[in-house]
Amino acid sequence: MPELPEVETIVRHHRDALVGRRVVGFESYWPRTVAPSVSAVRAALCGARITAVDRRSKYIVLTLPPARGWLLIHLRMSGRFEWADDGAAPAAHGGKPARPPAARMRHKEHVSPRGPHTRAMFVLDNGRRLLFDDARKFGRITLIDDYQRFDSSLGPEPLADDFTVARLARALTGRARMLKPLLLDQTIVAGLGNIYTDEALHRAGLHPLRRADQLRGAELERLHEAIRAVLEEGIRRQGTTIDWIYPSGQMQEYLQAYGRTGQPCGRCGTAIIALRVGQRGTHICPRCQPAPRRRRTASR
DNA sequence: TGAATTGTTATCGT
DNA sequence: AACGATAACAATTC
Q: What is the per-residue DSSP string for A46-92?
């Protein structure tokens, strides 16, 4: 499940191979992946040079020449990029040392460039073909013509300089929501998903059921620091590998809370417990993250 | 068979 | 009316 660190890793990994290249073809093998339509995306892409590859929240953003727009790629659950012509090694991300090319590239296997889960293909002017694979078909490739509108629909980038304690405090004031769903809300802070939200709350020593507007100053500072720290570590470790989907990250070895039910908390040794918060699986240390004093009770 | 996963959207309640 | 909570939904795997 790519969150900010995974998407950032992918963007960094693919940027140099894409920026400056001209797109000469675009195909989709599952048109619902593509919006507003395959033909519209193809028309915008073909002949256009990719001028930038960036990340905003969990979106990969391809910047096209003026009037061509921007292509947003959201990986959702299982989306991934893969080069069709890179030899068969699917894990193209930085983690593992590359195999000696000769072993794999003897002669290009004479197989279809796409696999069973390939939903789209970008053809570049140097002949390389970038595949968008997505087993669960949740991913989206969306062409937009108004970047401002997209950008303003999202909260601040947590690793940007303008994400300050004051800005976080402002976003939380007057919010009676529980911390966890609030942090998952991309309009509050952009880029956190289930894993890094649990990690940030654990690091900050805050219970996911705490009301957002009832944090003390010191707690706000801890939350701010924790969000940035866990995301930075995630990027440093090139993301989290949970299953076959995202194969190169190392962060799963360093998670403190997410998925560690029953294992000892790294800070105090208490067993991590699982609970459900807002329909999401949630993992906490019951000692480091004390439950709120008074349970919020729905008035009736 | 049900649970889990993300983010958007719709809907209902306060 | 604004906000919050909830469910449905897209599809697949275990």
A: TTPBP-EEEEETTEEEEE-STTT-EEEEE-TTTEEEEETTS-S----
How high is the pLDDT of residue A9? 87
Residue A123 and residue A129: Cα distance in Å, rounded? 5
DSSP-based three-state secondary structure for A254: coil
Whole-angstrom distance, CA of residue A88 vs CA of residue A38: 27
Q: Which residue is nearest to nucleotide C10 (CA to C1')?
A: A138
pLDDT digits (tens, 9 = 90+) for A187-220: 889 988 888 888 999 999 999 989 898 899 999 9
- A117-160 per-position pLDDT tens digit: 889 999 999 999 999 988 888 888 999 888 888 888 888 999 99
| Whether the predicted model's global pTM rises above the 0.90 cut | no
Rounded CA–C1' distance between A297 and B14, in angstroms: 13
CA(A238)–C1'(B14) in Å?
44
CA atoms of A14 and A94, how far apart (whole Å):
11
Spell out which residues of A between 189 and 228 contact strand C, using CB within 7 Å.
none
Gap between the Cα atoms of A142 and A168, Å rounded: 29
Q: For residue A11, give Cα distances in angstroms to A245, A263, A281.
A: 16, 33, 28
Instruction: Please identify every stretch of chain A with a pLDDT value under 70, giving residue numbers as ranges.
Output: 1, 86-112, 240-248, 294-300
Q: How far apart are CA A150 and CA A148, in angstroms?
A: 5
Whether residue A272 contacts residue A190, with contact meaning beta carbons closer than 8 Å, is answered with: no
Closest nt by CA–C1' to A117: C12
